[in-house]
Specification:
Rna Polymerase Sigma Factor, Chain: A; Arc Repressor Mutant, subunit A; 9 helices; elongated
């Protein structure tokens, strides 16, 4: 049965149809929550709260986006609520991650030899780098973490990420870029500490 039909049945009170919809998406919702919180118990709670909210709001779903995207938006609200009490913070400006003009190796910008990790999708294949990236993601403020995770782990197009986080495409690209630079900075720092040299 197609998703549209299941949604219609769920909106008419068919709980088995709703359960089928949930089962089709709960793995990805849990994966998103786990990547954002790095805590299995919190992730389980977020998944449960997401689906409870979805049950309550199923009549509000108009089919303008995919059902999975609608669930993502609910899950993101639950995740933001989870982080709501944390101190608000921001990342360094983009310029601080870039090599300083005319910087020398001594006393100059450490970013001159930053680890150029290229395409994050490819680099995630390395287990060691995945662990370092996970650490770096956990250090990102929530608004950058969600953009980065949706783009590179959930592999959503930038336009869909923008719709989910309710930002313009330009602002979303900026968040993704700043998150990438922050993660790259962390990679460079870790590899310099571990191997005594910067990676290229």
């Amino acid at each position: 049965m197609n998703e549209k039909k299941l949604v219609q049945q769920a909106q008419n009170g068919d709980f088995s149809a709703f359960t089928e919809l949930i089962n089709a998406h709960k793995g990805r919702i849990y994966s998103l929550a786990l990547k954002m919180t790095n805590n299995p118990q919190d992730s389980e709670d977020i998944v449960q709260d997401t689906f409870l909210k979805a049950i309550d709001k199923i009549d509000q779903f108009r089919g303008e986006a995919a059902f999975g995207s609608w669930l993502y938006s609910i899950a993101l609200n639950e995740i933001r609520g989870h982080f709501g009490k944390q101190k608000r913070e921001d990342l360094k400006p983009v310029e601080e991650y870039l090599p300083a003009q005319g910087a020398h190796s001594e006393g100059g910008s450490n970013s001159a030899h930053v680890f150029d990790w290229g395409d994050p999708h490819r680099i995630l294949e390395s287990r060691e780098l995945r662990e370092v990236i996970d650490e770096a993601i956990n250090e990102l403020p929530i608004k950058y973490r969600e953009a980065f995770v949706l783009r590179y782990f959930e592999e959503l197009p930038v336009k869909e990420v923008a719709e989910l986080i309710k930002e313009s495409v330009a602002a979303t690209k900026s968040r993704i870029l700043r998150a990438r630079l922050a993660v790259r900075d962390k990679l460079n720092s870790v590899f310099e500490d571990r191997y005594g040299r910067k990676m290229h």
